[in-house]
Amino acid sequence: MMLRIKRVPTVVSNYQREEAEEGGCGRNCLRSCCLPGAKLPLYAFKKASKPVSEQSPLVSDDSELGIDFLDSLVLGEWEERMQRGLFRYDVTACETKVIPGKYGFIAQLNEGRHLKKRPTEFRVDKVLQPFDESKFNFTKVGQEEVLFQFGASEDNDVHFIPYAPIDVDASPSVVAINVSPIEYGHVLLIPRIFECLPQRIDRESFLLALHMAEEAGNPYFRLGYNSLGAFATINHLHFQAYYLATPFPIERAPSKKITTTSGGVKISYILNYPVRGLVFEGGDGLKDLSDVVSDACICLQENNIPYNVLIADSGKRVFLFPQCYAEKQALGEVSPELLDTQVNPAVWEISGHMVLKRREDYEGASEENAWRLLAEVSLSEERLEEVKELILQAMSSCCVGEVAAMAPAEESVSSGPAHEDADESIKGSHPAMVPV
């Protein structure tokens, strides 16, 4: 049986259409009809070589770029697009509050994300689906929605070129605005855009996302990823990112160590949180962390398990959440009360930023309601254990190196430097989660 759900698709581009588009648009897009002679800014980063725990954004000695240049570039370009009126609504006018309670869930009233759109069917029982040129993809966005090209430099120094040619054959990665933003600076990272990759993680693309988090150097700038079946609605490889100047509840959750890989990456369970998952941190270098997490994601994809990923702490910590909400929704196992909220629990909601579409839900937001929704997303403890074993087996058989022998479990609270004041607020227990 093919499982499908109906939901209002998120509009990420002003040129997005529900129907197939004809070629030859003449509207300054990123396709062959409009690309000749086009130029976009280029940010070329220096590949990191330090251990993850010591990393900071790197610049060449003779460069005039400050260590926070990418951070300033993203915000400056994003604000310029806001002044030009390219967004569907003013996200700065959206009401936001921290929900009282020990977890500090964040609620936002964002009524503009689903207006004037009709529900569309999405298949949710197949994580890997082929790219479909007839559907909307990011080559159809307008060039004015693209902020800059982003990639590794050829000479291992940092460079910024304000007007760089677009080399289609090299298929650059680009950063574009999301015209339906959740928060300030909401952007999309689209790896190797002209290769038209489907929404699936690979090692190269995930390392690119970690580099972006590291280069920004701002702990309040996080990147997220949603697989198909876990509320990605566009089957063209992309990550999302935005700024939120407060800790996400998931960043304050305690963890229990499972093991450490031969490359120094610690893998742990997330504890006392409504969505069960894994957290990865450390490593002898950024690539070690990236390879371990991307191999875990590839394992989930190949086993048809939907998942969400949050990249936090400037690329030093990564949370992985296998999930089952869309499947339960398609099978009619989610209560009408939860469905009526129209909340799609993707990476941001799972991380504790609840994007609400109805004022009644915003005004009645409580820790209990947030917990109840997110508990429906989570795998059971037994199922997560099975998934964890799948991941460890996959990693032990690949070239990233064998997983080290299991060490005694250790409970700890992992927290980035900017979030040290939050540790005390997450101690304690919570009612058991709903098993799947």
Topology:
Layout: E1 4-7, E2 39-45, H1 69-83, E3 96-98, E4 106-109, E5 120-123, E6 146-152, E7 159-165, E8 173-177, E9 187-190, H2 203-216, E10 221-226, E11 239-243, E12 254-260, E13 265-270, E14 278-282, H3 286-302, E15 307-312, E16 317-322, H4 325-330, H5 336-340, H6 347-350, E17 353-356, H7 359-363, H8 367-375, H9 381-396, E18 411-413
Parallel strand pairs: 2-6, 4-17
Antiparallel strand pairs: 1-5, 2-7, 3-4, 6-8, 8-9, 9-11, 10-11, 10-15, 12-13, 12-18, 13-14, 14-16, 15-16
CATH homologous group name: ATP adenylyltransferase
Using only C-alpha atoms, the radius of gyration works out to 21 Å
SS-based structural class?
Answer: alpha+beta
Query: What proportion of the residues form beta strands (DSSP E)?
Result: 15-25%
* CATH-derived architecture: 2-Layer Sandwich
Number of domains: 1
CATH topology type:
HIT family, subunit A
**What is the average of the pLDDT values?**
84
The CATH class is Alpha Beta
Strand order of the largest sheet: 7-2-6-8-9-11-10-15-16-14-13-12-18
Unreliable runs, pLDDT <50, ≥5 residues?
A: 18-24, 56-63, 415-436
Q: What is the CA–CA distance across the termini?
A: 19 Å
Instruction: Give the CA-based shape.
Output: globular
Largest sheet: 13 strands, mixed
SSE order in H/E notation?
Answer: EEHEEEEEEEHEEEEEHEEHHHEHHHE
What's the number of helices?
9
Instruction: Give the total of beta strands.
Output: 18
Subcellular location: Cytoplasm
InterPro entries: GDPGP (IPR026506), GDPGP1_C (IPR058865), GDPGP1_N (IPR058866)
Keywords: Cytoplasm, Guanine-nucleotide releasing factor, Hydrolase, Nucleotide-binding, Nucleotidyltransferase, Transferase
Protein name: Phosphate metabolism transcription protein
